[in-house]
Design brief:
This protein is of the alpha/beta class. The chain has 2 domains: about 5-170, NAD(P)-binding Rossmann-like Domain (Rossmann fold); about 175-295, N-(1-d-carboxylethyl)-l-norvaline Dehydrogenase, domain 2 (Orthogonal Bundle). The chain is about 45% helix and about 20% strand. It contains 12 helices and 11 strands. It has helices spanning about 5-15, 30-40, 75-85, 105-110, 155-160, 170-190, 205-220, 225, 230-240, 245-250, 265-270, 280-295, and strands at about 25, 40-45, 50, 55, 65-70, 90-95, 115-120, 125, 130-135, 140-145, 165. The strands form 3 sheets. The chain has a 5-stranded mixed β-sheet with strand order 5-6-7-10-11. Strands 3-2-9-8 form a 4-stranded mixed β-sheet, with helices on one face. It has a two-stranded parallel ribbon with strand order 1-4. Helix 3 links the parallel strand 5 and strand 6 (about 90-95). Helix 6 (about 170-190) crosses helix 9 (about 230-240), helix 6 packs across helix 12 and helix 11 (about 265-270) runs antiparallel to helix 12. The longest helix has 21 residues, at about 170-190.
Length: about 300
Amino acid sequence: MLGAGSLGGLWATRLFRAGVPLHLILRNPKRLAEYHAAGGLELLENGTSRLYPIPAELPEATTPIERLLVACKAYDAEAAVAEVAPRLTKHSEILLLQNGLGSQQAIAARWPESRCIFISSTEGAYREVGFRIVHAGLGHNWLGDPGNRQPPPWLAELNLADIPYRWAEDIMGKLWRKLAINCAINPLSVLNDCHNGELSNQPEPLHKLCCELSEVLRACDQMDAADGLEAEVLRIIEATAQNFSSMHQDVQNGRRTEVSFLLGQACRAARQHGLATPELCELLDRLQALLRRHGLPDD
């Protein structure tokens, strides 16, 4: 597994306690030493905390990799895979647990000999100081392969690990739907510096954004993803009213956001299809200006 952050840590701890053979790949010797000093990954779940001493190594280790779960941020994913690519076996599988769209396609194109499985997750998790992962909300994981609808045999391991999942023949629809939801909620929560629930006080901006996002989805042949988008956005805002969005958390903690793979991707798709999306374009401009003021990358 590449990446020991929130979702990656959640998957890793559950797989490890189920007895699934697993190694974490950490980015450098300093990070590996910190991990060893911590004694493993700690998972806080249902009010109970437990430490899992999952084996860890550096990218330059020589053990062959048959299945690689990439759980780092979208902007780091391709470079992270490149570091371990010499270790991939002939018929390896790469599982991609990234937000938005763009990084998955880039990896699939660069390593066509590996089967790339895309994952869309609605589980809630965040990382506290060090290697402590908090499971913050129940959700679901959809897995799929746009080029091969046949599910792999190892999905039974996810059952053993109590990872809620479903094989999705239309994984791109799931990813587009989540992208649109994130585009409607995350940037506004950053620009207004607010909890998700406070966005319910801005029905008009949300309505305009959802209309444009639905138009983009339909232009990309994602009719199901466009259906009922605004209603689901409002439902999620209500269900996560006390939460800060992941993008808001990134900005507050001085971390790079995934704007290029979320709102940026939606705006690029609109341009490619000749759509006028003034609300989305203005939102992207305002968000990028705010990121630059915070000294963060705007892509």
